[in-house]
Specification:
Length: 110
């Protein structure tokens, strides 16, 4: 299972966004009450990511989730995965499009 860091504060998110300017990161916005999100979480955590990965629980950390949407200028959905490089989303997917195969393709493209 993939090791990821949970993002629970806006300041932590801002640090990750800044970090992405040096090294790309992968982030999943996850709803702990949604079966579709549970499936995406399974795909995300079973993907063997070569880059740093982060998880935001959208219900428990709503301000963080909102800030991500604002900073990346991408309308909120959940589940929602982002590949972030140079302070912006270079790839994102939501719902059933979050698969190990698509995560691998996105990471390979950078």
């Amino acid at each position: 299972m993939m090791a990821y860091e949970e993002v629970t504060s806006v300041s932590q998110w801002k640090d990750i966004l800044e970090q992405s300017k040096k090294q790309p990161v992968l982030l999943l916005k996850h709803s702990t009450t949604c079966p579709v999100s549970a499936h995406a979480f399974g795909e995300f955590t079973s993907f063997d990511s070569p880059i740093k990965t982060y998880l935001v629980k959208v219900i428990e950390s709503r301000p963080v989730s909102n800030e991500i949407g604002n900073d990346l200028a991408i309308r909120h959905e959940s589940p929602q995965a982002f590949l972030i490089a140079n302070g912006e989303s270079v790839w994102n997917a939501s719902h059933w499009k979050i698969t190990k195969k698509d995560l691998a393709k996105a990471v390979e493209s950078i």
